[in-house]
Amino acid sequence: MDLIKIIIAIILPPLGVFMEVGLGKHFWINIILTLLGYIPGIVHAVWVIARR
Q1: What residues form the membrane-spanning segments (predicted)?
Q2: Residue 44 sits in which domain range?
Q3: What does pTM read for this prediction?
């Protein structure tokens, strides 16, 4: 299941984070990082998913 979330996080980082933690602070951080640059959003999303 984590592999699917990571693939989704690469395609659309906020969705991957939302599937893992919901509408928490990490979701909003990821939205901001994705808007600032796609790569930081991906890195953060994969980190959030792999951390759990």
Answers
A1: 27-50
A2: 15-51
A3: 0.91
* CA 5/CA 19 separation, integer angstroms: 7
pLDDT in tens, 33-52: 999 999 999 999 999 999 97
Task: Show the 3-state SS of the chain.
Answer: CHHHHHHHHHHCHHHHHHHHHCCCHHHHHHHHHHHHCHHHHHHHHHHHHHHC
Total domains present in the chain: 1
Please check whether residue 42 lies inside any domain of the structure. Answer: yes
